[in-house]
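For anyone still unconvinced, we reproduce a single protein record, the chain in one-letter code, the fold tokenised, and leave readers to judge:
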Amino acid sequence: MLRKLDKNHREQGGFYFMEELVPEDHLLRQIDEAVDFDFIYDLVEPLYDEENGRPAIDPVLLIKLPLIQYLCGIRSMRQTVKDCEVNNAYRWFLGLDLKDPIPISRPLGRIMNAVLKGQHFLSRFSMEF
């Protein structure tokens, strides 16, 4: 018997927890349990001025995005950002909810290049940006 799917489910709302949307055995879950990324805040604190400038992008997010790119074999930061828009596991790992915007790739690339040129703490991560 032929059955046609009802597309009205696309507009259906629901109440979900991000924890429920990420499988228990996902690699990013394992990394999140094993690594405490809070050390990054201490390393970058001298680089931020609380009185001047725009609100900053979370520095942990700036480390986790290229980590996702490297671990998942994504070829560009632009594609990584696009994938983060639709992948719940990536959003969960970044600490974002379903409606939070992902930093756009061009400014993110400029930030990463500036950070890489001036800081040595990223040398702990053996990945290419």
